[in-house]
Structures are given as C-alpha cells and as structure tokens.
Design a protein that fits this description.
globular; seven-stranded mixed beta sheet; single chain; 41% helix; alpha/beta; 529 residues; 18 strands
C-alpha cells in the first residue's frame, strides 16, 4: 500500500531521479520514488549470470567521478568502488598496429599524441593545464546551478583578462573538426578529440561539438574512464542506499499513468495499479519530455506552442550495442589497445566527419565508429578468470530504428573489430545484441533507442532544452519539474539534471520562492503558448 499523501513524488529512479530524491529527503521532505520497472536504476543497470557481469546501458563514468553533485553524496560510504584499466582510452588509427592513447601521466599521453609531430605533445600539455586551471568552476557551472552566475564569475576570474574570456568562449563554440585543426598539426591529437566528440553523439562539424570532445578528453586525462566495481548497477545501488538513508521511500513496479493538476498546480500522481498519491509540494519527473507532456499531463495543461516544439525535438543517434563473452583478451594489433578500458575505433578526424555525415543523412556507415568497453581490464570481477567481458556500441542513422538495420550494423561491428584484431571472432563464446527496440522496451525514456535524452547540439542545449524556454527544470505547471537528461545540462551520468530540479523545487517552496517562481512560470507559459 502506497502512502496517500507525501511532500514530493519523484517519477523514475535513474541517477537523476535518485539525486533529486536524496536532495529533497536531506532537506526534510517526505519523498516517494516510483519506478515503473521491477528494478531501480533506470539506464544504469547491470546483470550477472554465471560469473559474467554485463552493463546493460551506460558503463564508463568519467563524469560520475568528476561530478561535484555525485562527489558531494559520498557514495563510497554506501558501497561504491571505482575501477580503472591501465589506460583510460585508446583510439585506433591506420595502420592497424597503431593507436593514440590517454595514459595516467599527461606526459605519456603527450608522447603518444606527439609521436610524429612533437609540438602536438606540447599542445596537449598546455590544453590540459588550461583545463586544470578552470576545472572546479567549470564543472560547478555546468552541473550545479542555472543560470551559473557564481561559478561563472569564478571561472572568468581564473581565465584572467577579457580577451582570454572571449577566446575561451570562442573555443567552446567551435566545431570539433575545426578545434582539432587549430590545436594540432598532425592526425593523432585530432583523432583523439574527434572520437570523444562522437562518443558524446556530437556531429564533428556542428557548433559546440568541440566542447563535448574537449571535456571528455580532459576528463579521461583527469579521472580516467572508470567503471563501477561489480557492474554499473553498483552505482545505482549506492544511490539507492544513500536515498534510503536520507529517508526516501522507493517503490518498484509502479508505473505512473497520469499527473493531476488543479488551478495550474500539481496535486497528485496516479499509478497503473489505480492508486492516487497526493503531493503537498512537488513532483519531479525523471522521464523524457515526450512522456511528461505527451502522456502524463492532461492535454489541456500543455500549451499548443510547446506541443509544436516537441514535434521538432531531436533525439540523439539510435544505439546498437553488442555484449560479448570472450574466451580471452581481444588480440589487438595496437599494443595500447590491449591495456585500455575504452577503445575508439573509427580512424582519423576526417574519417569521423564522413561517419557523422552518413548518420545525419540516413546512410548506414560502411565503416562505423565503435565505442568499445573492455570492462574486465578494469574490474576482474566482470568475467571468469582468463576470459573477458566486452561491449561495443555504435549508431544507426538518426531516426532509423528497425531491427533489420540494427542486425546489419551489428555484423559490420563484428567485422570492424576483427580487422583490427585478427582472431577476435574465434574468441566469442556468447554474443548478445541490444537493438533500439530492445532499449525502448527496457526503458521508455530512451526514445528511438537513443541513450542521451536528446541531441547535444547547440540548438537543443541551454535555454533550448528540451524546447525554447528558460533553461530551467520548471514546467508550465506549478510544482512540477522535469528532472531528466531532457533538460540542461543533458546526457551523462552526473546527477546534474536531478540536482537542478530538486534545488529549484526547494527554492520555489521556500518563503521567498514566489518571488522567482511566479514570474518564471508566467514567462515560461508566455514563451510556450
């Protein structure tokens, strides 16, 4: 039996939903988390069968380690342990025995990048030093506040002069392909950044795609590409324990079918089991924008302009993921790939521009970009002794989600790995394919089988995420907040979206809350009418 009335309901138990629940419960609110699935964790879950652990959705968590939101929760006190491979990342190049890699020591990374162009190694060290200079306020600005006034001022001070600030703004706005050309003379550094941009599903010729590639590359150098020891589900379990310690109640197998609204204010949620739970203060929805506005809210509460805007909402690329059980390590020709937790396979930056063009124009790439996770290299518990648990994912063209195309792409993925590691196919003892349809069936928030909650391109970031608005978790309904990756700062396991939603809900419920809540909600309704 569910409670009849609570201070707040959180819909969904992904990392953002759990972070929201923790923040509200820490503030003394009576919090109920309702999860549709039979297991908590959203798209951060793993399975364990006969000694093989498989991360079913996300797997590597550089933002999870670096996020000031998650760091503040001290999840290590609740059982979380991070595991690292000897190398964070290797990007394969031609010929097949060559790779550029991110090593624990920046000087070793610089040597890998500058093998043929020594000045490129120096450029990497300068790039990383510049990142370290602004790392704290940059991550605070990105993940902890909106608008990011205070951390933004701190970052501006660290950058120095107005000219340096303007140059940094230009740097952040650049397409990845152009950024690589300006930073590096040779192909190795350019390919390394480009692979990280595609890792973030950002087309390399699009504005701000450089930011995505730069940030992931800097994080790889800073904190690595760690996995959660024991499987990605261990991260969710630590968040669950932290939420329960704070006093939140978490319930699985409880799909929400409707959100009740009265006089423009959220009043209750209704479950598929026929129960109605009243809310005194807030509902935070860790679901897609389409689910919230198209399925849960009464149609009369959704402005016509918002409905039109959501028709143009752009998902990120549909994902195809292969999970392998191997009788031994992948026999990469490139030595650095044999030690890397993550391997990018796709060639030079120019090659990846063509891959992106194929994906954006409806063509299945002949030589797809692969993101490969060698999880046993970081965490020996992932597979029996002497074996390797490996996953690989790639993307279908935007909007293409049929199973036949997924099967075709999966075959190309197998062959791409075999080209760079002859004998790979003979090591496969089991192979599990996850198609876009499988992702959607497992988690309704993964629209079109996309794992990022929507494209990260500039036209759908900041005040444009999920549609034209104020860049806030607030919705047109008072007391209702969108707290998923559909809002700023977007995809990644960092907890920022859930943190911002809870922070906004707490502020709106304070004595001074009406001073900001009422005009902001009115402005949002005006923008989206």
């Amino acid at each position: 039996m569910l409670p009849r009335m609570v201070d707040a309901v959180v819909i969904g138990s992904g990392p953002n939903g759990l972070v929201s629940a923790i923040a509200l419960a820490d503030a003394g609110w009576d919090v109920l988390v309702l999860e549709a699935a039979d297991e908590l964790g959203g798209a951060v879950r793993s399975t364990s069968v006969d000694g093989w652990i498989s991360d079913r959705f996300s797997s590597s968590y550089p933002l999870g380690v670096a996020s000031p939101v998650l760091r503040a929760l001290e999840l290590e006190k609740h059982g979380l342990r991070w595991a690292h491979a000897p190398l964070a990342l290797a990007h394969l190049l031609e010929p097949d025995d060559d790779a550029v890699a991110i090593h624990p020591d920046p000087s070793d990374t610089a040597a890998s990048i500058g093998r043929d162009h020594p000045r490129d190694g120096d450029a990497w060290l300068r790039l990383y030093q510049d990142y370290v200079k602004i790392r704290g306020p940059f991550l605070q600005a990105l993940l902890t506040s909106w608008p990011p006034v205070v951390p933004g001022v701190r970052m501006a001070r660290r950058l120095g002069s107005a000219g340096d600030l303007a140059r940094f703004a230009r740097f952040m706005a650049m397409p990845m392909h152009r950024m690589g050309q300006e930073l590096f003379e040779g192909p190795r550094g350019r390919a390394l950044l480009a692979g990280n941009a595609l890792h973030a599903d950002a087309p390399l010729t699009g504005s701000v795609s450089g930011t995505m590639g730069w940030l992931l590359a800097m994080l790889a150098q800073d904190v690595g590409f760690p996995v959660a020891q024991g499987g990605s589900g261990a991260l969710s379990q630590a968040l669950v324990r932290r939420a329960e310690t704070a006093g939140a109640l978490l319930v699985t197998g409880a799909p929400i079918t409707a959100i009740d609204v009265s006089a423009g204010q959220v009043t209750a949620v209704r479950t598929a089991g026929g129960e109605t739970i009243g809310v005194r203060r807030a509902v935070i929805a860790d679901v897609s924008a389409q689910t919230l506005y198209g399925e849960l809210l009464p149609p009369a509460c959704v402005p016509a302009g918002l409905r039109r805007d959501l028709e143009n909402f752009e998902w990120d690329y549909p994902t195809v993921k292969l999970n392998y059980q191997l009788s031994g390590p992948i026999p990469w020709r490139a030595a650095e790939a044999r030690e890397a937790g993550v391997v990018h396979l796709g060639g030079t930056a120019d090659d990846l521009v063509h891959v992106g063009a194929d994906l954006d124009t409806g063509r299945l790439p002949t030589t797809p970009f692969l993101l490969i996770g060698q999880t046993t290299k970081a965490d020996s518990s992932r597979s029996p002794a002497g074996t390797e648990a490996v996953w690989a994912y790639s993307h279908l063209p935007r909007g293409v989600t049929d199973d036949a195309e997924a099967e075709k792409l999966a075959g190309r993925m197998d062959r791409a790995i075999e080209r760079h590691a002859p004998g790979f196919l003979e090591l496969i003892t089991a192979r599990d394919l996850q198609r876009p349809s499988d992702f959607i069936e497992a988690n309704a928030s993964l629209g079109l089988g996309a794992l990022g909650g929507g494209t990260t391109q500039l036209h759908q970031q900041l005040i444009f995420r999920p549609t034209v608005g104020l860049g806030s978790p607030r919705t047109v309904v008072a007391g209702l907040y969108l707290g998923s990756s559909a809002i700023h700062p977007g995809p990644g396991v960092h907890g920022g979206c859930g943190h911002l939603a809870a922070r906004t809900a707490l502020r709106d419920a304070s004595l001074l809350g009406p001073l900001t809540r009422i005009p902001a909600t009115a402005a949002l309704r005006h923008l989206q009418r």
